[in-house]
Amino acid sequence: MSEHIANLIWERGSAPFDYKSYSRNHLWDFGQQNTLSASAAADFLGDPSKVDPEQAFVAALASCHMLTFLAIASMSKLTVERYEDRAVGHLGKNEAGKLVIAKIDLHPKIAFAEGQSPDSATLKRLHHKAHQECFLANTVNCPIETHL
Length: 148
Description:
Blueprint: E1 7-9, E2 26-29, E3 35-38, H1 53-75, E4 80-85, E5 88-93, E6 99-106, E7 108-112, H2 120-133, E8 144-146
Helix pairs in contact: 1-2
């Protein structure tokens, strides 16, 4: 088994520590001088210019799906030239009334090498297999739908 480490760093600074005043800004440190500024979502008093945990969650799932899709396409002798996705996470309440990412929609747009244009049935099969094999999709319980 492998480990995947992220260090989080937050400091109060000079702001009062009451709910509406303290900063939600913090750093995600992935090591080797690879840091990312993060905050809460703007709806939860965060800085909208920084990535929030919900966006990161959705991006991580979309990234895992893409990386798995690329591996499957490569093994299927299909050459992918470009892959773009507009992943959308939908915040909602679960059956216990708690806020959760209730659903994620993926909207991949894929360009294949010249002369390669898989039909829609093949694309659906490849995306279905990518979903089944994606480590993160296998970890979460919200529905993840791919819209082609």
